[in-house]
Amino acid sequence: MARKRTIDDAHLLKVAREVFLEGGAFGSTREIATRAGISEATLFKRYPTKTALFLAALAPPQPDIDFMFEAVRKQSDPRKALHTLAFQVLGYFRMAIPRMLPLITHPAIGLDEMLKQFGTSPADKLSEAIAAHLGELRKRGAIDVENPFAAAALINASLHSLALFELMGIHGGEVPPAAVRNMIDALWRGLEPRSNKRKKP
User: Mind listing the domains of the chain with CATH numbers?
Assistant: First the structure.
């Protein structure tokens, strides 16, 4: 009868993630094993190479679209719904980007290998979901958007950039909520002069 594992994979990957986020690719498997309370031999029985462990530990989960949009759909005001959506997407990027960057820059992994792990790019998945939401609002007459996919890409890219800026220490490491809402409001109002909008049939 096989011996029961003394540590489950979820906890082991959590420990490995902490070490790799502290030290990047130079994070020590010996340190991971020590913190996890197992031997390096046991560690390598589960993950045969350090690269495999690095990828498994740092690969962020796919965005939970149903969960993210649950609060969005409860908002009857479409502008407030976009505010809620922005904070949900930004929250995902705040979690995912610190984990993605070491994977993308790792010499043995890179973007292609990371995308193999994901199957679908999380950013693409988010853009598709946002575009679908904007399309629903357009059908109901709640917004006027010519190209939901372009608007979704703009929202997604902006929030992705905000999360990167935070990681770089800009805004003191956290963009104020009011700034996020103002960004969405700028998109909501558009850039075209009001006089031009009034002239349109």
Answer: 9-58 (1.10.10.60), 65-199 (1.10.357)
| pLDDT tens digits in sequence order for the chain, 201 residues long | 444 456 788 999 999 999 999 988 889 999 999 999 999 999 999 999 999 999 999 988 889 999 999 999 899 999 999 999 999 999 999 999 998 888 888 888 877 777 777 677 888 899 999 999 999 999 999 998 889 999 999 999 999 999 999 999 987 889 999 999 999 999 998 877 766 555 555
Among candidates 179, 175, 152, 153, which has minimal Cα distance to 164? 175
Amino acid at 162: L
pTM score, whole prediction: 0.83
Sign of CA dihedral 85, 86, 87, 93: positive
